[in-house]
Amino acid sequence: MSAEGGLTTTGYIQHHLTNLAVCSDAAKIDGHCHGFWTVHADTLIISGLLGLLVFGLMAKVAAKASSGVPGGLQNFIEMVVGLVDQQVKDTFHGKSALVTPLAITIFVWVFVMNAMDLIPVDFLPIVAGAVGVNYLKAVPTTDPNLTFAMSITVFFIMIWMNLKVKGFGGYMHEIFTAPFGAKLAPVNFIFRIVEDIAKPISLALRLFGNMYAGEMVFILIALLGLYQLPLALPWALFHILIITLQAFVFMMLTIVYMSMAAESH
C-alpha cells in the first residue's frame, strides 16, 4: 500500500512521526539526528508561536476589557478564566498568587497545542515541504520532550512551594517523618522519593501517550484514501473531548500538587 509522495505505509507513518531535528554533524547517523543534544525545532517553534498567539490575544482582550456588556471574545476568555479560577479555589487550600495564573497558563497552552491535532495530518507537512522542510510534527504534545519539560517545571515549582510554605526545616521534617513517624525515617524518605519522582513521570506520560495515540489514529485514517472522511469526522469530534480533557487533567493535577505542597501533615 502506498501513501503520499509514493511512500509505503510504514514510510508514511514514520515520516509523520519524525520531528524536524537540529543537531551538529557529529550527532547525525544516516542523515538523522541522534543523541541528547538534538533539538526538536518544530516542537519549539510551534509551541512558542501558539503561546505568543493565544496569550498575546488574551493580554490584548484584557487591556481593552470593560465593565459593560462584554463582547463575544471577552466573554469567552472570562468564562475560561472563571472556570479555572473556580477549580483553584475548590482544590488549592493555601495562599499563593502563583497558582491561578499557573493553572490558566497550563490549561490554555496545553489545549491549543493539543488542538493542532484537529488540523488534517497532511496539510502542514505539505506546506512545510513546499519551503524545503522535510519533516514536521505539528502537535507539540506528541513530543515527550515537551511534556516532560512541562512536568519537570511543575515539579520544581512544587519543590519551591514546599520550601516557601514550610521552610527548609519543615520540609525536611515532613520528608522524614510522614507518614510513619520519625522512627521509620528511612522508609518515609524512600516513599517520598518514589512519590515525588512518580509525579512528573505520570504527568508527562499521560499527556504524551493520549495525544500520541490520537495522532496515530488520524494518520492511520489518512491512509484509507477516499474512505477516510466517514471516519475522520467522528474521530475529530470525539477528539475535541480528548484534547480538552487532557488539558484539564494536566491543570488539575498541577493544582493538586501545589495544594499538597502548601499543606502540612
What topology does this entry show?
Blueprint: H1 9-16, E1 21-22, E2 28-29, E3 32-33, E4 39-40, H2 41-63, H3 72-91, H4 99-115, H5 123-130, H6 144-177, H7 185-222, H8 228-261
Antiparallel strand pairs: 1-4, 2-3
Membrane topology: Multi-pass membrane protein
Keywords: ATP synthesis, Cell membrane, CF(0), Hydrogen ion transport, Ion transport, Membrane, Transmembrane, Transmembrane helix, Transport
Family: Belongs to the ATPase A chain family.
Characterize the structure shown.
This protein has 265 residues and is mainly α. The chain contains eight helices and four strands; from the N terminus they run αββββααααααα. The strands form two sheets. A two-stranded antiparallel sheet has the order 1-4. Strands 2-3 form a two-stranded antiparallel ribbon. It is globular.
Strand content: under 5%
Largest sheet descriptor: 2 strands, antiparallel
User: What is the helix fraction of residues, given as a range?
Assistant: 55-70%
Radius of gyration: 22 Å
> What is the helix tally?
8
**Shape estimate:** globular
* Structural class based on helices, strands and sheet pairing: mainly alpha
How many strand elements? 4
State the order of secondary-structure elements, H for helix, E for strand: HEEEEHHHHHHH
What's the mean pLDDT score? 90
Number of domains: 1
Q: How far apart are the first and last residues' alpha carbons, in Å?
A: 60 Å
User: Order of strands in the sheet with the most strands?
Assistant: 1-4
Given as residue ranges, the uncertain stretches (5+ residues, pLDDT < 50) are none
Pfam families: ATP-synt_A
Protein name: ATP synthase subunit a
Family: Belongs to the ATPase A chain family.
Transmembrane segments: 44-63, 97-116, 146-163, 207-229, 235-258
